[in-house]
Design a protein that fits this description.
It is built from three helices and eight strands, in the order H-E-E-E-E-E-H-H-E-E-E. By secondary structure, the protein is α+β, with helices and mostly antiparallel strands. The longest helix has 8 residues.
Length: 190
């Protein structure tokens, strides 16, 4: 069953809703276990300074992909949120691989299951994500977003985003509690 995510909602709400959803690209993927939210009002967001050629897809309609290169090395995959023109999205940081594992291993040149998709660059490489998917609608192939298993409860943990230098204390990183497939663990509150 397709996941019914309201991509027109604020990014931090969508980021939470995506935890436990299955993402497949051409049949390869798994359960989303870690996300981060970004909004145009957020100094850590690519859209904070306005629309450019690079970030244009993030200003597009909700429910589309925003794919960009990080430091010229790794592709990263985001879902566009809010209304067209706003500039918000959710970075997918990690998934638990469940389908097409051998394909992911070939793409990554790595056998260790836990490390195949633990981090946004690894995730994109394992799923074959690149610029051709930028601005594409998530409701159409090659994408599939499948609903969480209603019988399996999902407990979401939150914390500050990682790998950024601005708005570092904003608690817009979301993860599946207890998952061993996260890019990095969550620090327990004192």
């Amino acid at each position: 069953m397709l996941a019914s995510i309201d991509f027109s909602a604020p990014a931090h709400e969508v980021a939470r809703q995506l935890i436990g959803v299955t993402l497949l690209i051409d049949g390869v993927g798994g359960t989303i276990v870690e996300t981060e939210a970004y909004d145009q009002t957020d100094p850590a967001s690519h859209t904070y300074a306005g629309q450019t050629a690079r970030n244009g897809a993030m200003f597009g309609p909700p429910g589309h992909a925003y794919v960009y290169r990080s430091y010229g090395l790794h592709w990263c995959f985001n879902t566009v949120c809010r209304e067209a023109g706003h500039g918000a999205g959710v970075l997918l940081r990690a998934i638990e691989p469940t389908q097409g594992i051998e394909t992911m291993r070939e793409r990554r040149g790595l056998h260790e299951l836990r490390l195949l998709c633990a981090g946004p660059g690894r995730l994109a490489q394992a799923l074959g994500i690149d610029a051709r998917l930028n601005a594409q609608p998530l409701a159409l192939p090659p994408f599939e977003l499948l609903a969480r298993d209603a019988a399996a409860p999902v407990e979401v943990v939150t914390g500050p985003r990682i790998g950024i230098s601005k708005a570092v204390d904003v608690p817009w990183r979301f993860g599946l509690k207890g998952s061993r497939f996260l890019s990095r663990g969550f620090v327990a509150a004192p």
